[in-house]
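Researcher: Please translate sequence to structure tokens.
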Amino acid sequence: FSDCMTLLLTFFVLLLSFASFGEHVLQNLGSSFAEYLPDIGLINIAERESVFDDPLVKYSERLSSGSESRPKDEVSADNFVAETTPLDFTNLKVFTVASDEIFWGNGAVVSKDGKELLDAFVYFVRSVPSRLVISEHGTGDHDDIGMERGWSVLAYMTDNGVDINKISISSMKMTEKAAGSERILEFTLLDKDVYE
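Model: Translation complete:
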């Protein structure tokens, strides 16, 4: 069978190599391929201008009153909202992540993706003077798994250079945020005035 296929392939290669097609035959051959393979081939589209005047756009003069302009009687220095401290990464104290992004299945073994995420967090924890409380919790029948996962994260972080005296494990959640049906791993940073 393979010899037959090889001979057939050789025949078609020789036929196409030595046959000469006229211009009209080549176009017909191309159109037959285009019928079954529409994404392959040349596209004969006339060139168009890419920039043209749009008659639908009409410019008008800027209004002195309306939704874009403040009324003159409201413009005063005491009318503005007091600015609060913007939230940024260093102001936040509790970090939460879904446990299934850190651990394999319902166990306490840290997954590859979890290691990548914990590596970034380890780098952050080593740069701040705060203490860290790790807690893992959620709804369901697996209440004892939270402590095992906490110990697993503690071991990973201490193996990667975080001082063990900076880390504590808790079985209680530190936020009031409802976890829903998924388990949550929480990292809570404690300021120096809290733990001294």
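Researcher: Any highlights?
Model: The mean pLDDT is 73.
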